[in-house]
UniProtKB/TrEMBL annotation:
Keyword Signal carried by entry: yes
Signal sequence coordinates: 1-23
Residue span(s) of domain AB hydrolase-1: 155-241
SUPFAM superfamilies the UniProt entry points to: alpha/beta-Hydrolases (SSF53474)
Name under which the protein is recorded: AB hydrolase-1 domain-containing protein
Record keywords: Hydrolase, Signal
GO molecular function: hydrolase activity
């Protein structure tokens, strides 16, 4: 009963009919190459390999090491020597923050979506331009089903640590923090579908790195999956030595037949997050879109992008 009351206090019902945002469609054709291979010919690039180890933490007193005012493809190498990429956007308004630490928003696209497309389609750059914080859109790896994230039992990766997308997330955050003035207490992960699954399991596994999470059309699917995967999430949260609890916003369509709520026990699937984070120590919100499917809900009455932005403000106070 306590859990039901707690959830009722945090649930927001969204009755309107949504529309597809181009960046939000999960059913995309199989792509033989990661998006970064195509972006390389059209976007300025920065090789930031080793920045996380070789550079001292930013003093926040000078220019960022990344280009300002343009999207830039950043290349790094993980611990296995595998090259990974992400797009970073440091707005001109970042320079007007006068050396103060800013938030970092990390985006995770859906299966076979595009890190550049997801960055542009969600529309977060409008907020970034206004507020002066930094956004990075991570590029997924090629698996059996296409380009996506190795977040657990979905989607097309047989090995639990190849690729290691948890290590990549930490590397991304460390790299951006080495090249710009980032407040590590204001790192928020935002994902859709397979990317939302990635964001949710970051709240399980790396709450000390990612302090807030927005999941749109996703579920917790840590290996071995189902109830055991949910218990693994709860265990990792409890045993994390930092004691951190990520704030979580979950947006899910009732008519979603790709990652269906009705295909899972909704209350059970949120139990680990609510019980370990809860409305006491962190913010937990659930937006239940009654007439929407597997989309990024957006119309004249409700915008997932705007709601996610405001959620970040409620968690952080200021970006």
């Amino acid at each position: 009963m306590h859990l039901h009351l707690l959830l009722l206090a945090c649930v927001v019902l969204v009755p309107e009919s949504g529309r597809f945002v181009r960046a939000a469609i999960v059913v995309n054709p199989f792509r033989p190459l990661p998006t970064s291979a195509r972006l390389a010919s059209t976007m300025q690039q920065v090789d930031a390999t080793g920045w996380d180890l070789q550079r001292a933490p930013s003093t926040c007193g000078g220019e960022p090491s990344f280009p300002v005012g343009k999207q830039t493809l950043v290349r790094v190498k993980d611990g296995s020597g595998t090259e990974r990429t992400f797009i970073i956007y440091v707005p001109n308004s970042y320079l007007q923050r006068n050396g103060s630490k800013v938030a970092l928003k990390v985006l995770f696209h859906g299966l076979n979506d595009d890190c550049g497309n997801f960055l542009d389609g969600t529309g977060f750059t409008e907020h970034v331009d206004r507020d002066g914080y930094i956004i990075a859109s991570a590029c997924g790896s090629l698996g059996i089903l296409g380009v996506g994230w190795n977040a657990g039992t979905c989607c097309g990766f047989s090995s639990p640590d190849s690729p290691d997308d948890f290590a990549f997330t930490k590397l991304l955050v460390d790299t951006v923090a080495a090249g710009a003035c980032v407040d590590r207490e204001k790192v928020i992960a935002v994902g859709f579908s397979n990317g939302a699954m990635m964001a949710e399991v970051l709240a399980c596994r790396l709450p000390h790195v990612v302090r807030a999470v927005v999941s749109v059309g996703g579920v917790v699917e840590l290996r071995p999956g189902n109830a055991e995967g949910l218990m693994e999430c709860a265990r990792e949260i409890l045993e994390n030595p930092s004691g951190c609890r990520s704030s979580v916003l979950m947006v899910h369509g009732k008519l979603d037949n790709i990652v269906p709520i009705n295909g899972y026990d909704f209350l059970t699937s949120t139990t680990p997050t609510v019980a370990q984070g809860g409305c006491r120590n962190s913010i937990i919100e659930i937006v239940y879109a009654l007439n929407q499917g597997h989309v990024w809900p957006s119309d004249d009455e409700f915008s997932t992008t705007e709601y996610a932005y405001e959620f970040g403000k409620r968690v952080f106070g200021r970006y």
